[in-house]
From TrEMBL:
Keywords associated with the record: Amino-acid transport, ATP-binding, Nucleotide-binding, Transport
Name this protein carries in UniProt: Amino acid/amide ABC transporter ATP-binding protein 2, HAAT family (TC 3.A.1.4.-)
SUPFAM superfamilies according to UniProt: P-loop containing nucleoside triphosphate hydrolases
Domain ABC transporter: 2-233
Organism whose genome encodes this protein: Rhodococcus rhodochrous J3
GO molecular function: ATP binding
Stated family: Belongs to the ABC transporter superfamily.
Glycoprotein in keyword set: no
PANTHER family per UniProt: HIGH-AFFINITY BRANCHED-CHAIN AMINO ACID TRANSPORT ATP-BINDING PROTEIN LIVF (PTHR43820:SF4)
Length: 234
């Protein structure tokens, strides 16, 4: 599992994260809710090794990864699907997937590609076309497929529903569930709390850089701090 304990992250004098604790388990979707600027993206980026914590612990399957460079954390099995998808528009769909598998052997890459196509048949149909021509929902599937190419144990997802039409959001969330059902631990930041809670197992609420609630999704629905996170009260 991924254990984030009392994480603090500063940008110069700005304290972005000041006491976030989250645990993400294999096969489960842990949904991180919170208003704009609450520190959710910074938390994910820090776990992925793209920001350095000021203090706190990040353990991946019991091993501290604080201070590790991003590529080493990826090799340890933690992959980030960034906010805004960031697919390479001018590369083909197939090339985008290959980029995600650069750390794997050729044999593993072929196997991962086959599994990504099995999960997202549209990617196989469009594999020779430019990624920039995919719809928003399809680009999100590609971002998931690219992340799966490194055969991660955990995937960090930053607002996968962002900018997508409501009908597409549900399809994307179904894919998130399917990824967790393969045994992968998903730690997902989502502004769309309703959509996220439909498929999540556990919920964490972050308020002004601090985690203020964590619990199973059924319990979270009854809890007032989670309801105010719905409303975006920072
Ligand atoms: P959003 O939903 O808007 O992405 P968030 O919960 O993901 O919000 P963060 O993006 O982690 O929040 O930002 C947390 C705080 O850190 C905010 O106050 C933000 O303004 C600040 N911040 C984020 N990135 C930087 C940066 N590169 N330099 C300085 N301050 C930053």
């Amino acid at each position: 599992m991924i254990e984030i304990r009392d994480l603090h992250v500063d940008y110069g004098k700005v304290s972005a994260v000041r006491g976030v604790s989250v645990t993400a388990h294999p096969g489960r979707v842990t949904l991180v809710l919170g208003a704009n600027g609450a520190g959710k993206t910074t938390t994910l980026r820090t776990v992925a090794g793209l920001n350095a914590p000021t203090s706190g612990e990040i353990l991946v399957d019991g091993k501290s990864v604080v201070g590790w460079p991003a590529h080493r954390i990826l090799a340890r099995g933690v992959s980030l699907v960034p906010e805004g998808r960031r697919v390479f528009s001018s590369l083909t769909v197939g090339e985008n997937l290959k980029v995600g598998g650069l750390i794997a052997s050729k044999k593993d890459r072929e196997e991962s590609m086959r599994r990504a196509f099995e999960m997202f048949p549209i990617l196989e149909e469009r594999q020779d076309g430019p990624a920039g021509l995919l719809s928003g929902g399809e680009q999100q599937m590609l971002a998931f497929g690219r992340s799966l190419m490194s055969q991660p144990s955990y995937i960090l997802m930053d607002e996968p529903s962002m900018g997508l039409a409501p009908a597409v959001v549900d399809r994307v969330m179904d894919s998130v569930r399917a990824i967790a059902d393969r045994g992968i631990g998903v730690l997902m930041v989502e502004q769309n709390a309703e959509a996220g809670m439909k498929i999540a197992d556990d919920v964490v609420v972050v308020n002004r850089g601090e985690s203020v609630y964590s619990g199973p999704v059924e319990e979270a629905r009854k809890h007032s701090s989670v309801v105010s996170a719905f409303l975006g009260e920072a």
